[in-house]
Design a protein that fits this description.
five-stranded parallel sheet; alpha/beta; 225 residues; four-stranded antiparallel sheet; 12 strands
Length: 225
């Protein structure tokens, strides 16, 4: 049974959506505000999310932008009473995968969710592997061999970026720009601090190192010889 996360502040609307989706075979978790919704989204586990645009605490687009910035690529259907073309475009550019304006037919919402789950993407049904290291992009689970690796959102994004560029030397400037989205490169040890934590989790003392520090240049991820 696919699990969905619904972030919708209007309880009556949420109850109607949950009833329709449950009848269609989905398991639906509900968050009534933006703060709780972001926390639940970060915990992972949802195959897709339905996010109302106007929410108390934190608006829907801010939630989506935060999740995309952290590397979470779960498909998102945006719900909104704002139907202008500019509003729809803004929702999609924020990271939404589809946009449905209120009022809507419940059957259409179910059909759009089903379409999102069928959509082939780089991140669905996809696993990155480098030697014994494995990153399940759908479930957001990292493993080295049989050992699970517990990653914070930024560590996950950093590891994903490195695994996609295995055997490439990555400079601190590249990592700041691509993982942290800095438009300029400040004088900071941010990369080194996070990389140190990530290396500690990926490379345990009894295991061959996979993350290497290239002195004066940056870092590289490669499979053990």
């Amino acid at each position: 049974m696919p699990k969905l996360l619904l972030i919708e502040d209007d309880k009556e609307t949420a109850d109607e959506i949950r009833a329709e989706l449950t009848e269609s075979g989905f398991e639906v978790d509900w968050a009534p505000n933006g703060i709780e919704g972001l926390d639940k989204a970060r915990s992972g586990g949802a195959a897709a999310m339905i996010v109302d645009r106007l929410l108390p605490g934190m608006d829907g687009l801010t939630i989506i932008e935060a999740l995309r910035h952290e590397g979470l690529r779960t498909p998102v259907l945006v719900l909104s009473a704002l139907a202008a073309v500019d509003d729809r475009v803004r929702g999609l550019r924020a990271g939404g995968d589809d946009y449905l304006t209120k009022p809507f037919a419940a059957l259409e919402l179910v059909a759009r969710v089903e379409a999102l789950l069928r959509r082939p993407t780089e991140n669905q049904d996809s696993i990155l592997r480098v030697g014994p290291l494995e990153l399940n992009l759908m479930e957001r689970v990292a493993k080295r061999g049989d050992r699970a690796i517990d990653l914070l959102p930024r560590e996950y994004r950093l590891l994903e970026y490195m695994m996609r560029r295995k055997d490439q030397v990555l400079t601190r400037a590249m990592l700041l720009e691509e993982v942290w989205k800095y438009k300029f490169v400040p004088q900071t040890n941010l990369v080194d601090v996070h990389m140190g934590r990530l290396r500690h989790k990926v490379d345990e003392p009894n295991e061959p190192s996979m993350i290497h520090n290239i002195r004066g240049v940056g870092f590289i991820l490669r499979a053990p010889v």
